[in-house]
Amino acid sequence: MTTTWIAAHRTAVINPHENFHLFEPRSFTDQTVRQTLRLAGGGEALRVRLSNRYGKEPLHIGGAHLAVRTHGSGIDPTSDTPLHFSGTDTVTIPVGEETVSDPIELPVSAGEELTVTLHLPGDTGPTTYSAVPYDIGYAAPGNQLSAEHLENAEELPTGHFLTGIDVLAPLGTRIAVAFGDSWIEGAFTTPGTDNSFPARLSRRLTHGWIVNQGISGNRLLTDEVGEHLLARLDHDALAVPGASHILIHIGLNDIGLPSAQSYPEPPTDRPTADDLITGLTTLADRIHTAGLIAIGSTLGPYEGTIYDGVDTPEGQTVRRQVNNWLLGPDHPFDAIVDIATAVADPTQPTRIRPEFNAGDGLHVNDGGAKAIADAVDVTLLDL
């Protein structure tokens, strides 16, 4: 059987040197970092991706291991396998670069939880990181690469260096990339349950799967949090091996973050509906030029959110205008997922239904993510 490398897990990353932070950057010195992920698809071998994309110094990794997770920071010691990089146990990733491990001949399946453990012997400086990893990670002092349970470990709510796993899958395997903001990434869904709406939707598919490249706080037109969507399209979506469809939710932070950052003063840089429509059109056109299918979505409701300045009459007008355009005949996408209707309160459609509200009025909980996934016509993802 002819095979090819396909993305089975992805995590988009953020520059720790940005001026605006929703999540606290951090560094490590002579520590072991252990992080778990869940595969969206399987294959007969795998390789691990690590990143120093935003580091300001070369990143020295004194050792890296892969294992099957048990619980917490625990691993099955019988599965503990060293990773190699061009045949060596250690690797130094240059500033702005990424690296891929040598392949490991290990058959894996969708849903398997694997743990990657890194020993970081020096001072990493502020790290390239992800906002909402699959699950809570752990950092512990010294070199504990093969420890069944890490000693004196602290929890890590953010992810660090680990950006994905590829699997060797049958030639012709195709996947979708979920691309956008916190509604894509799965903020406020339960860690370790894989309950983001893209993950839930992926489990409904009969062919292929979905990997997640969402960044909480991300915007379409403006950097921070993360590079804006148009800037990261090539790297984080079009270049993902196996990608044939791009599923998008973006725009709420373009509307709300300027007001939050300037609160209580009015913002000076909130985009208009025309600005967002132009950006979304450019996004769809670039996806089509790459030969991929672009699936857009309406912007989720957020009236009454607890975050100061985010909910404004002007912002609600922009959201309504953009959603009307997305639901009309003139948008450039191949299809639209009506996320807003899937989770809106029927009596107050600008608000999230109480049972789907994660508690902040801006994000959905596990039930809301399921409602979105269930509302998607899976024939749109003919992978």
From TrEMBL:
Question: Pfam families of this UniProt entry?
Answer: Lipase_GDSL_2
Q: Give the residues annotated as coiled coil.
A: none
Listed GO MF terms = hydrolase activity
* Source organism (scientific name): Streptomyces coacervatus
Every copy of the SGNH hydrolase-type esterase domain together lies at: 178-370
Instruction: Cite the InterPro entries for this sequence.
Output: GDSL_Rv0518-like, SGNH_hydro, SGNH_hydro_sf
Q: Which domain of life is it from?
A: Bacteria
SUPFAM superfamilies per UniProt: SGNH hydrolase (SSF52266)
List keywords of the entry alphabetically. Answer: Hydrolase
Q: What is this protein called?
A: SGNH/GDSL hydrolase family protein
